[in-house]
């Protein structure tokens, strides 16, 4: 199956091709351009998308959760039904293998349905009702009811490393649409064709399920200007971004420096430290093999890629790091998303290996073109602590092992760490308790702490926290994966003394939606009267 | 009853008087200095307070909710028991009447107990548990459990207008301590004696209930340097502030510009627009009298003071505004918190009355010294819309009535409004529905929307939202009043695959605290196993 990729913008329900500047996408495996040419969105097109989104906000915020859910399910259904069209475009533009493409599409569809369920169920609005106490002394208590309401138009940036799951119809878009916010996507230029094909299905789903025009638009742009302009646009109300620290910080600053500041949720990468306690070096546990796989998964292009592995010198640790390096050296070279990313990987790899005390454990080839070989570098705890530059993220299949002279140096190394998405601690239960201080230090620095596991593989579920202390993300109080991601696009609104006819269903006495609410201090999902 | 006011800092469990610079507080009614002299905290003292707070964080975050609750209740008990000591100091420094002092103390005690109840009950941590599904295809699901954890040391600024309820042991302090965060208070210099007396009781309560030293410190400073230094201190993790827009924006910028940005929750004032629909001008409803009282309550020094009242020209509106102005003119002059505030009130009042088309409805005396007369100014909708300067907050007993030519101009006036803490809409139910667009516009601009009520009087309850779109506050997604205020000082932490012995009680299978949790997608407070 094939369908034409037109290279146009999707603005509301219409395609738009006003611009004359174009750009192309490339197949990273061959370096050859794809058959498609994409038009850069013009200012007028972007303005129209924002104006439509703002207008759609007035209607879309009133669309009941069950209808928003139908919209999300229609998107999911269309993506699933058209896998045979979408997967080849994804593979052409990303160089990622078919299994990954299908897995990521499945995850994307699963996310859309998870947010559909959340919107349909409705308890996510965190309704709190305190009914009037007219006879209270010294003053009567008024009737007050609060729930989460959508912020308004959200600008979503497609992420290079997840053309399906963190891009056009990815987690940011799904959670914002579930919350009741229109979305304007600035597609990632590396997979503009994938973006267009997905966007067409989102637009079609919006039409078919009767959503207001402007609830979704998709704009193409190869440079930084379009995104910056959207973040600064007076009608945008929040931003979702996954990418580099440089890009995330720049957008975050723009969000703060507006006349009316808006939240910019930027996930900016992380080296996801792993601490291997002595018992975990036992070869029978298989951690070296598990981490060799985790480091090289998806050619190391995951935000939870473990880029730092710390342990205490000794025979076990030496054997562990050796096994890890040998296992990684056996992994075939992988294709990165773009030649330039592979180039950056190679130059950062060289830079790391030139740092004081850093060496490769088992020499590997850096690769060429978009193909790269994985790297295990090694350094002492002392040299690591002395050199904050070794905490930079090397995007790709790279990890740095840090050999600490003892528990005290290990603790110092962990104290020196910046904020991270995840940290992992490997060891026996009794040993984990002995290293309680270390556990506390890791907790303070991460959004998710794993005990005896690998950080890659981010489950989409209510308990997931994908967001850690700065500089891993701009706001550790929110998650970009899992159902709580919906909160990023909402704020509380209290209604005081509102007549029943003006209350939304979520706040009515009879709880017609049957949602969980805190009513006069008690959690209840009772229907039919408070 | 009396007790000495020493003018010293409270740092951890000790008084400290290292500084030699001093300042005094004054009785605004007489202009005379109080008998006390206060030492400016030195950098070394501030550094020690922050270091102790950071050290206390390690222990205090592990203190169970029930013990945090005991601490908060001990503070509440001490403040209540010593009302006869505290109220005279408060009155001496604020010029506010005894009834207000006792009412505010009661509210402060009530807040402390509400947060104690919240901490003791424990469900506020929003526990989410997804248990392992080892046989799930294509990949197993790991065990993941998430809850809210405290951010670390919080810097709280005392607010001039609430020496008890928004200062040393006010809502910010109570919510932060309940969340598990140590607090360093930068006391407000206008009521430094009240701050010291309250702080002494907080410190005593911390000692008596076995809290770690450094969980609370109180620093005095008459200028801006100390507060700025605390916000910029690498160990501070969040900031609570209630005050001017200028001050709030400056602190917020400092928080953003740190090497590691931190949230600054600044409430920066609001003019709390009121829309009077035609039916509400009926004199029998008494709204003119109710608003005359609301505007002049506490000499207009409330954050929810209604500073803007909009209506549609006509006989009813004319009569309403006339009645309002006459009622306000009859209110005796009130004492502001400081001569300089009264001076600023008078100069802004004059400035407003000099704006195009603005006039006083019933001339009142601006007063002198700390005493001020209330003002009702009037302007046409057209002149209001054309002059954004008329949206400035005049801190004090001031309100501006806006006479719109019809519903369309009223809607335009509302569209022109900035973000606000509250808005109020007065009218009959059928009329409210007819003005649905207006209602939607107000909703988008506020944190709390009142139907047929007055905004002053902020209930402390789960449904309260005290925080509105910028520039009313720096972050409309959080509230500074009500139990949800605890969220400001926390972030989510997920634990993956943690052995039972490392789980906090909140996340254990048997739910020993009996809290409400989302377990595998179902809300439950069941104990004894999931």
UniProtKB/TrEMBL annotation, chains A, B:
<feature type="domain" description="Aldehyde dehydrogenase">
    <location>
        <begin position="20"/>
        <end position="435"/>
    </location>
</feature>
<dbReference type="InterPro" id="IPR044151">
    <property type="entry name" value="ALDH_KGSADH"/>
</dbReference>
<dbReference type="InterPro" id="IPR016163">
    <property type="entry name" value="Ald_DH_C"/>
</dbReference>
<dbReference type="Pfam" id="PF00171">
    <property type="entry name" value="Aldedh"/>
</dbReference>
<dbReference type="InterPro" id="IPR016162">
    <property type="entry name" value="Ald_DH_N"/>
</dbReference>
<dbReference type="InterPro" id="IPR016161">
    <property type="entry name" value="Ald_DH/histidinol_DH"/>
</dbReference>
<feature type="region of interest" description="Disordered">
    <location>
        <begin position="1"/>
        <end position="36"/>
    </location>
</feature>
<dbReference type="InterPro" id="IPR050740">
    <property type="entry name" value="Aldehyde_DH_Superfamily"/>
</dbReference>
<keyword id="KW-0560">Oxidoreductase</keyword>
<protein>
    <submittedName>
        <fullName>Aldehyde dehydrogenase (NADP(+))</fullName>
    </submittedName>
</protein>
<dbReference type="InterPro" id="IPR015590">
    <property type="entry name" value="Aldehyde_DH_dom"/>
</dbReference>
């Amino acid at each position: 199956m094939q369908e034409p990729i037109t290279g146009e913008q999707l603005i509301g329900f219409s395609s738009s091709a006003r611009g004359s500047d174009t750009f192309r996408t490339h197949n990273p495996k061959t370096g050859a351009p794809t058959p498609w040419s994409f038009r850069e969105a013009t200012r007028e097109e972007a303005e129209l998308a924002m104006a439509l989104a703002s207008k759609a906000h007035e209607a879309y915020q009133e669309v009941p959760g069950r209808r928003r859910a139908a919209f999300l399910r229609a998107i999911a259904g269309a993506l699933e039904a058209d896998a045979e069209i979408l997967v080849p475009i994804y593979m052409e533009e990303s160089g990622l293998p078919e299994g990954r493409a299908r897995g990521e599409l499945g995850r994307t569809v699963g996310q859309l349905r998870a947010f559909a369920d959340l919107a349909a169920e409705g308890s996510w609005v965190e309704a709190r009702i305190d009914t009037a106490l007219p006879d209270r002394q010294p003053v009567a208590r008024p009737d007050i009811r609060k729930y989460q309401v959508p912020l308004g138009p959200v600008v979503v940036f497609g992420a290079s490393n997840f053309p399906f799951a963190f891009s056009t119809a990815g987690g940011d878009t799904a959670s914002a649409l579930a919350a009741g916010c229109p979305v304007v996507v600035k597609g990632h230029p590396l997979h503009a064709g994938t973006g267009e094909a997905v966007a067409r299905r989102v637009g079609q789903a919006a039409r078919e399920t009767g959503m207001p025009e402007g609830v979704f638009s998709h704009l193409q742009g190869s440079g930084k200007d379009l995104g910056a302009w959207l973040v600064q646009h007076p009608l945008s109300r929040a931003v979702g971004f996954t990418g580099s620290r440089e890009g995330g910080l720049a957008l975050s600053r723009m969000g703060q420096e507006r006349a009316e500041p808006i939240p910019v949720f930027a996930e900016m990468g992380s080296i996801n430290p792993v601490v291997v306690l002595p018992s975990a070096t036992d070869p029978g546990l298989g951690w070296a093999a598990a981490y060799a796989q985790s480091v090289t998964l998806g050619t190391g292009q995951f935000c939870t890629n473990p880029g730092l592995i710390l342990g205490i010198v000794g025979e076990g640790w030496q054997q562990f790091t050796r096994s890890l390096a040998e296992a990684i050296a056996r992994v075939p070279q992988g294709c990165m998303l773009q030649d330039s990313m592979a180039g950056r990987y190679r130059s950062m790899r060289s830079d790391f290996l030139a740092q004081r005390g850093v060496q490769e454990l088992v020499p590997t080839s850096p690769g060429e073109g978009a193909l790269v070989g994985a790297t295990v570098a090694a350094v002492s705890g002392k040299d690591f602590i002395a050199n904050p530059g070794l905490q930079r993220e090397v995007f790709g299949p790279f990890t740095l092992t840090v050999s600490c002279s003892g528990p005290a140096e290990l603790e110092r190394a962990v104290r020196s760490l910046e904020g991270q998405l995840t940290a992992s601690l490997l060891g026996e239960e009794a040993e984990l308790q002995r290293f309680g201080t270390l556990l506390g230090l890791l907790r303070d620095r991460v959004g998710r702490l794993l005990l005896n596991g690998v950080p890659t593989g981010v489950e989409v579920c209510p308990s997931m926290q994908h967001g850690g202390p700065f500089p891993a993300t701009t706001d550790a109080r929110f998650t970009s994966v899992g159902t709580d991601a919906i909160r990023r696009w909402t704020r509380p609104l209290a209604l005081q003394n509102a007549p029943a006819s003006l209350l939304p269903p979520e706040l009515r006495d009879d709880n017609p939606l049957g949602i969980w609410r805190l009513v006069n201090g008690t959690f209840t999902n009772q229907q039919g009267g408070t």
